[in-house]
Structure formats: C-alpha cells, structure tokens
Design brief:
Elements (H helix, E strand, L loop, with lengths): L9 H9 L5 H7 L7 E4 L2 E4 L1 H7 L7 E7 L9 H14 L4 E5 L4 H4 L8 E2 L2 E4 L1 H5 L5 H25 L2 H6 L7 E6 L3 E3 L9 E3 L10 E3 L1 E3 L4 H8 L3 H8 L3 E5 L4 E3 L6 H8 L6 E5 L4 E4 L14 H10 L2 E5 L4 H16 L5 E6 L1 H7 L20 H20 L5 E5 L6 H13 L3 E5 L1 H4 L5 H11 L15 H13 L3 E4 L1 H12 L7 E2 L22 E10 L4 E6 L18 E2 L6 E2 L3
Parallel strand pairs: 3-16, 3-17, 4-15, 4-16, 8-11, 17-18, 18-19, 20-22, 21-23
Antiparallel strand pairs: 1-2, 2-14, 5-6, 6-14, 7-12, 9-10, 12-13, 14-15, 22-23, 24-25
Helix pairs in contact: 4-18, 7-11, 14-15, 15-16
Pathway: One-carbon metabolism; tetrahydrofolate interconversion
GO biological process, one term: tetrahydrofolate interconversion
Organism: Pelotomaculum propionicicum
Length: 586
C-alpha cells in the first residue's frame, strides 16, 4: 500500500484490496459488537441498528464531520473520494474513525458518473457488491414503491368495473380516485428517458385502468427519502402509511393506508432499515445506507447510520450529496433538525479544475478529454473561479460551523495554483488542506486529517437558517437569497396556489423544505457558472412527500428520470468468464 493508482483502474485496486478484506467476524471483534448485532451477507454484513443503539445509548457521541463540495463539473469533484481519504488519514493517525455514505444508484453506475465508491487509494470495497445492488436496499425500495402503484391501478380498475355493493362484498370502499391527479409513478433503477411519460392499461377492462403514468429513477422515490430520515422501524411504518399516492375527485389525498398496502410495503423494507458495513481499501469501517439524488430528496446517508456511527467511532465522517448549496443546506436545515445531531465541522471539497471552469473555462463534457486549460497552469481562470469556493465557505459559516477546505489534488495542479486556493480560502475564514488521498491513500490525507481534528476542537454555534414556523414561501426566499445568492423568487400561479394551501393547512405544519434544483450551478440554470448576480429563482411546482414530511419546491427543469448518454459506462463493463469477476467498474 498504496496501490499504483496511475496504472491500475479502480476495480483492479478493489480486487487487490479485497484479498485481505475484513470479514463480518473481524468487524464484530474490532468494533466490539455483540452476537446478533452483525447480520452476514456473504463477504459483507448489515448491522442490527436497534440492538446497537439500545446497547450504546448512554455512550457519548464521537465527533460529527460532514463532507460537501463546491459547485461541481459534470465529472464530480470527489466527495466520496475525500470521505474515504479522510477516514484513511484519521486511521493513519491512530484514531477510531469511520464513515457513513450513500448507496449508489444503478442509473449513474451504468451511465456516466460511475459507482460513487470513491477512487484510487480512497475507495470503498467490495466495489462490485457496492456497485451492483449491495444488500438489496434499493431493490426493496423498488418493490415496495411499485407495489403501491400496483395497488392503485388495480383499485381504479375494480372501482370502474364494479358498483358500490359489489365493492363492499369484496371488502372495498370506493375511493373515487381522480385519474388526472396521480401523485406517484413507477420506478426503475436506471436512467431510462423513454419511460418518463407512459400510457398504461392499454387493452380490455381486465388489463388495468388505462391512464397516463410515468417512471422515475428508484433513488428519487419517497421511500428512499423516508429511509434517510426514519428513526426506527415503528417510525418507518408510520411514514410509509402517510405517502400520498393520488387524489380523489374532491381533491382529498389517497394514501397507501387508504389502499391498504402500507403494511406490505413495510414488509419489503424491513431489512433495508439496517445499514450495510463495508470498508475502505485501508480497512477502515464504512457504513452504507440510503441513497443519492439530492436534486429531489435529501441526498444524505441516513440518520440511522450516523446515529450508530457516532456511538461506534470517535470520528464519524458523513457525506452530503452535491455542493454546499444543495447537500450541505439540506444537511443543515433538514437532516440535523430531524436528527437533533450537531456537526463539529464541514469539509468543502474543491478541485482546481472546477474552479477554473467557474472562472470561465471551456465546457467540461463527460467522456471527452479535458481542454488544456484544465491540465496546464492558468492562474487567471483560477482566480476568477475562486468566488464560487468563497460563496460556499460563507454558506457553511452561516450555520455557525468553521469549515475546512480540502483541495482534492490532481497531478496536473501546480504549486502556484494550490497556493492561490489556500490563500483565498484562509482569507475567507476557512482552514485549508491539500490532500493526495487518490494517489497515496491515508498517507496523502494526513494534512487534511490534522486540519479536521483541529477544527473539531472549535466551538460550534450551530443555528438553522430559518425556524419551522416560517411560512413556506418565506423559507424558499431565505434559501434563495442566503444560500444561492438570488435577488428573489418568482412563483408560477399554480405553484403559488399550492404554497398558499400548504401554508394554511395545519396538516403540513413542521414539514421540511426540500429544494429541487440543479447541482451544476448556484442557480436553477446549469449553464450559469461561478457566482451569478441579480437573478431570480423561478419555482414552477411544489411536490409533496407526506411520509417523509417534505414539501419540495421545483425549480428549473429537474427530471425525476435522468437520461442515458451516448457513451455510457455499461459499454465497458463485462465479466471474466473464467473467474466470474466483474471488470470495468469505475
């Protein structure tokens, strides 16, 4: 160790590290877990959350470290790589550290972004299991979610075919569902743009109810959001029963409880409530729970994973999706509010290539070579783009946290470029550390680890951006101005009508505000880089996740079903027929 990341692909490094990968019995002894708290799944295991949290309930929590980023290029700037590298660096210092990260979606894995396992010598293993379903949580979510749609369509068919007396004989009451006001759609864990809008039920009266429907990617399901914020199995069951599937012809919500499907959905989800335990390539523990897609949902590893990690580790590093305007904002104002946990420090991952893009550099296109502006020293572009980093530093400081900027190093970065980023970060009131974890693993992350440990000793004056009593439209305005840098918010008539209704209905009191926005810009427009000025955030709709207790203002053209590009990753993924090993994952 470390492995030669300049010559080996990620899946090859994973294969080498997995030869000595810790077993479930090893983790039971190392982490002091008791019999029955470890649930083996082949080479990996799940942890019985309720047993562990009950046994350790009186143990003080460890330090709580969140990892976020600047506004990324479409390639991503390495938050998971930084998370893995930081845990490895803390391990090299002899500290009891672990991580909590999200499970990757099959959509990005088979498309452009890759598996989200990290990279190089800052990688989560076993990589193949991690990338291809792990212990089945996303599959459980798909089954549970689609069962609700099966129940809905079947109920609509039966109500069309039978009168009230016949329905009563079958133990059913008429829900009178409005086929033009269906909240949910189907889900599949791929980027399948051809399924964004569909017509279902084509055929005769026994072939379902014919209506317009849709597919979203699995990780956009409200069930994934619920998994991220649920506190225990009882809470999970109650939240699932409140999911709004559709509305009746009077405008009243029709829930999974009304369809009598919530219990069966929970049965599919019963094992998903327990986090999966993996490791870094340097064999530090990594909990995996909940999923990505912070555009529409919370995009965080779960509250459950963080709660047990803070009991088992002296330093728990948890990752938030996308940049600080999305991931950190939701960590700050939603996850921490729901969990009651207070972070000690936030790490802002930055790359020099992304800062150059924000300074006016050429367009970065996945699958194409980077323009030379990103691989040669260009201090002028870099200096112009540093405003984006400074903006995110200011956002984190508004929460009362002193951030640490991690310069995620690339071999093309120069000393002068690194010095410039460090100087401006420190001027903005943040610690700054260069980290070479991709190349050198934990040894390359020692400066980062030391800066984070030092920051954990700072006093934290943690405060939310807004009180829960603040009306929805005022919250959106506060987020737009204080986090995104907008000059204001505009609402379509339909969106404003919904917002007014939610504000006046006591049933939605205490719901979180879950902004839906592109991750590629501080604005709603992914083409606007840097720190745009004098712009207005348009809100076109508000989605309701009643089980998760989220109100989701929709901005821009965010889709719940991403599309697959012309050069997807699945073209390079295969299986060695002699060994059965998967090749080509990244």
């Amino acid at each position: 160790m470390p492995y030669d990341a300049t010559k080996l692909k990620d899946y090859q490094i994973a294969e080498l590290a997995e030869k000595n990968m810790p077993t479930p019995s090893y983790w039971q002894e190392k982490l002091g877990l008791e019999q029955g708290e470890v649930i083996p799944y082949g080479r990996i295991c799940k942890l019985d959350f309720m047993k562990i949290i009950d046994r350790l309930k009186n143990k003080p929590d460890g330090k709580y470290i969140e990892v976020t980023a600047i506004t990324p290029t479409p390639l991503g700037e390495g938050k998971t790589t930084t998370t893995m590298g930081l845990v490895e660096g803390l391990g090299k210092r002899g500290l009891n550290a672990g991580a909590a990260i999200r499970q990757p979606s099959g959509g990005p894995t088979m498309n452009i972004k890759g598996t989200a396992a990290g990279g190089g010598n800052a990688l989560a293993i076993p990589m193949t299991e991690f990338s291809l379903g792990l212990t089945g949580d996303i599959n459980d979510i798909m089954n549970a979610h689609n069962l609700a749609m099966v129940a809905l369509n079947a109920r609509m068919q039966h109500e069309r075919n039978y009168d009230d007396a016949e329905l009563a004989k079958r133990g059913l009451r008429r829900l009178d569902i409005n086929p033009t006001n269906i909240e949910m759609g189907w889900i599949i864990d791929f980027c399948a743009q051809g399924l964004r809008k569909i017509i279902m039920g084509i055929g005769g009266k026994m072939d379902g109810y014919m209506m317009e429907s849709k597919f979203g990617i699995a990780v956009s399901s409200e069930l994934m959001a619920i998994l991220a914020v649920a506190t225990d199995l009882k809470d999970l069951r109650e939240r699932i029963g409140k999911i709004i599937v559709a509305y009746d012809k009077k405008g009243n919500p029709v829930t999974t409880s009304d369809l009598e499907v919530a219990g069966a959905m929970t049965a599919f989800m019963r094992n998903a409530i327990n986090p999966t335990l993996m490791s870094t390539v340097e064999y530090q523990p990594v909990l995996v729970h909940a999923g990505p897609f912070a555009n529409i949902a919370i995009g965080q590893s779960s509250i459950i994973a963080d709660r047990i990690a803070l009991k088992m580790f002296d330093y728990n590093v948890t990752e938030s999706g996308f940049a600080a305007d999305i991931g950190f904002e939701k960590f700050w104002n939603v996850k921490c509010r729901f969990s009651g946990l207070t972070p000690n420090v936030s790490v802002i991952t930055a790359t020099i290539r992304a800062l150059k893009m924000h300074g006016g550099g050429p367009k970065v296109v996945p699958g194409r070579p980077l323009p030379e502006e990103y691989t040669r020293e260009n201090l002028e572009l870099l200096e112009k783009g540093i405003a984006n980093l400074q903006h995110h530093i200011a956002t984190v400081k508004k929460a009362g946290i002193n951030p640490v900027v991690c310069i995620n190093a690339f071999y093309t970065d120069t000393k002068e470029e690194i010095a410039m980023v460090r100087r401006y970060a420190e001027q903005a009131g943040a610690r700054c550390a260069l980290s070479e974890h991709w190349l050198k693993g934990g040894e390359g992350a020692l400066e980062l680890a030391d800066a984070v440990v030092d920051a954990c000793n700072d006093k934290v004056d943690f405060k939310f951006l807004y009180p829960l009593e603040m009306p929805l439209r005022q919250r959106v305005d506060a987020i737009a101005r204080e986090v995104y840098g907008a000059a204001g918010v505009s609402w379509t008539p339909e969106a404003e009508e919904k917002a007014k209704r939610f504000e006046s209905d006591p049933a939605f009191a205490g719901f979180a505000t879950m902004m839906v926005k592109t991750h590629l810009s501080l604005t709603h427009d992914p083409t606007l880089k840097g720190v745009p000025k004098d712009w207005i955030l348009p809100v076109r709709d508000v989605l309701v996740f009643a089980g998760a207790k989220f109100l989701c203002p929709m901005t821009g053209a965010i889709s719940l079903m991403p599309g697959t590009g012309s050069d997807p990753a699945f073209r390079r993924i295969d299986v060695d027929v002699n060994t059965g090993k998967v090749m080509g994952l990244f």
